[in-house]
Amino acid sequence: MDAPSANVVETICGEAVADPYRPLENLKDPAVQAWYMREADHARAVLDAIPGRSELIAKMVEFDKRRQEKIFDLSITDNDCYFYLKQTPADETGKLYFRKGFKGKERLLFDPDTWKNVTGSTYVVSEIAPNIDGSKVVIGVSPNGSENAILFVMEVESGRIYPERIDRGRFASPSWLPDGNSFFYNRLNSRDPLDKNRQKDSRIWLHVVGTNPATDREIFSRAHDANLPIKAEAIPSVVYDRKSGKLFAFVGSVDPRVTAWYAPTDALNEKVIPWQPLFRPEDDVYDFVTTKQDLYIYTPKNAPHFKVLKTSLDQPDLASAETVIPEPADATLTGLALTSKGLFYTLSFNGVREELYHLEHDGQKPEKLDTPFDAGTMAITSKGFDHPEMWAIMGGWSHDFRRFRYDEEDKRFIDETLSSKASYPEYDNLEVREVMVPSHDGVKAPLSLIYNRSMTKDGKNPVLIYGYGAYGNSITPFFSPSLLLWTWKGGILAVAHVRGGGELGDAWHKAGMKTTKPNTWKDLIASAEYLVKKGYTSPERIAINAASAGGILVGRAMTERPDLFAAAMPQVGVLNAVRGETSPNGPVNVPEFGTIKNPEECKALLEMDAYHHLRDGVNYPAALITAGMNDPRVPAWQPAKFAARLQEATASGKPVLFFTDYKAGHGIGDTKTKQFESLADMLSFGLWQTGGSDGDKATE
């Protein structure tokens, strides 16, 4: 059945633009609902029939059983209380556990399976915020991938759950005060995920444990603090910083530049807190850490590969700030942790190799630390300037993540991995190649290749190119046994580190946003052309995949070069960028993609809009397009409109499947089974269309 359509033409950027599938934006229309469901049923039937899909799921389940327990979302208090989610092979979602110290006896605090407020909903723990001494913890639970958290408070020792409930907590970010009995939190103004104003003018409240949230005091918002430059779409937050003893107020968006004010904690006694300015966007501060008297600032200002400055907390002066860690010449400064033993920091080389350094307080020369293995990815954390602990989580394309504590006294790394270790002999013969690919303008973009050593360059290897390219987020090496099943089936997994990401620093991000966004998909196209030229594969054997903002990457690559790809698989993707601002989450994304209100940025949005670049009679690749009906980030109608138009336009005869999951959102908070099924859909569809193992037997 054809999708509901209408003769909608509107003027965008000064030109008439047809939008025939505008009716699909009305998710409450029964005819529209019926089309979504029919498409989902059809896609489900085709996907379930692909030979090899069930084998992939079975292998994922087998992999999962090899690990006795997986531990994630760890939070450690200064007095060594560990709060974390744990998932065993029998668990669909993570359960909240507690232990005192790394070697302490663990205790189950909360099982989200017991939370059954809404019949038929599956809840996940989406917030864990212990107070400073670990005696109480705010827990947030969200249903069906919605990220729409409901907050409650638990007393850790007794397990008592206080009666109050706080809903609309998608950006809650609870921050406890030193009394251990009150906390700040953000609350949206609407429960309706389709309400276009849902995220506008959210507010920060102060809650006292055991009281009715209706009596909570408003602390910070655009209305409450009318003297401050706060935009309606900005997401406010207030944090009590236990290291400096001060209050910090922030307004955020996807813009990485910090906008912040601060005040002494006793200013809470005043009706309106007299916030003092700390950072403006033009200061180019991306992050900071504090001591009692100092600010350490992470910034790309006049240093696109980042540097660290130090200035006074009480009288900050960025112009005369001391450079503590200068911008590296051939790497990007990616992480910073402050301890009583000095500064620890990480340097990334092309986004795929990380090194760890230690600089003593008042030291002149940093020391490179010899890590337990060569890490592709490294994340470092600490308890702050007044504690000695520093932890490093390390991993790579073929090396599972492990967590180490660095003992500065003995100069050694101590393995404190919480998750069980597992063996994957299937991947003992993997080879990893890191190459630099010349793009359309001569700029070289990193490309990671993972495949079996026995592979031959005969031009016939199925290739899955994965990418993202937005917000300055880097795809650093990660070990995923389930994703690596592509190599188990004989294919090449390629990760394109395209512009828009942060692999090569802040300039790499800025070279793939707003008006420079075409570099993002042109880098992907160049990566595919490189693989063909070097004899790895051929166009009829290349599949491309990305999610969310990566929908721009996949959608525009396949519409610009439909001849270069066999299959395109955008998941919950941004595919109708010019309409983004009409969705609840759209305005907050303006700093990354632009606004239709600015003529130049409007044209950039139209250029990155894959829906509007589809043309009738073109032989487009096969496509698997997905959406989540509970998605708070990319509404289901964005991928829906693209799918409907692609079905109408393509002349290739290849399948165009559109699957909407009615019990999922953006993929955040999915159950384990849903994660396996979604990944198996993508892998099996890609193998089917590229002629991979078992992939040439299925028909629609």
UniProtKB/TrEMBL annotation:
Domain named Peptidase S9 prolyl oligopeptidase catalytic: residues: 480-690
Keywords: Hydrolase, Protease, Serine protease
GO cellular component: cytosol
Catalysis performed (reactions): Hydrolysis of Pro-|-Xaa >> Ala-|-Xaa in oligopeptides
SUPFAM superfamilies given in the database record: alpha/beta-Hydrolases, Peptidase/esterase 'gauge' domain
One biological process term in Gene Ontology: proteolysis
Listed GO MF terms: oligopeptidase activity; serine-type endopeptidase activity
E.C. number(s) listed in UniProt: 3.4.21.26
Name of the top EC class for this enzyme: hydrolase
InterPro entries referenced in this protein's UniProt entry, alphabetically: AB_hydrolase_fold, Pept_S9A_N, Peptidase_S9_cat, Peptidase_S9A, Prolyl_oligopep/macrocyclase
Residue ranges of domain Peptidase S9A N-terminal in the record: 6-360
UniProt-listed Gene3D superfamilies: alpha/beta hydrolase, Prolyl oligopeptidase, N-terminal domain
A UniProt-annotated Pfam family: Peptidase_S9
Hydrolase listed as a keyword: yes
Protein name, entry field: prolyl oligopeptidase
